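Worked example

This section walks through a single chain of length 171. The input is the sequence exactly as stored; nothing has been trimmed or padded.
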Amino acid sequence: PGTGSSTLATTATAGKILQVLQTVKTDTASTSSNNFGDLSGMSAPAITTTGSNKVLIRLFVHWGTEGGHAISFRLAKSTGGSVTVSPIKGDTAGNRDSVIFGGLASNAPWEVNPASMEYLDSPGAGTHTYKLQWAVPSGATTAYFNRSFRDNDSAGEARTPSVITVMEVAA
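Given that input, the structure is written out below as tokens.
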């Protein structure tokens, strides 16, 4: 009704979820590198898509840094096991990092901080692997995954899981 613009589904399966794959990381990791590297255990299982189907990527992560120190994350995609690209990131501007989560800093060393994102990728037919990469931009501290910077062995301190989920969505 009215004056709208949309695309109509041309098949009975358009928009349906065809497969769901997930990786859950419950252990911890750390980095103090200012160069982006793969975050061990945060790679989704390879997903094989057909035709012009899309891939919905969902990330929910936990991290901790020393108070006031930043951490950055980016999403990487490997297609056919050869080329890695960033399917989504912020615009490039000067010396700023172009990432999916960036400039994230803890207020205090006991915090376990959450970050999440969702993105609908149009990768084309083939086998695709999505993974999370991370870096400490200043390189002046250590960042932790699934725990706080302090990580005291006491009530009130936490260890948390992180999740990467990929879903094939029919075009």
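What to look for: Residues 61 and 162 are 4 Å apart (CA to CA).
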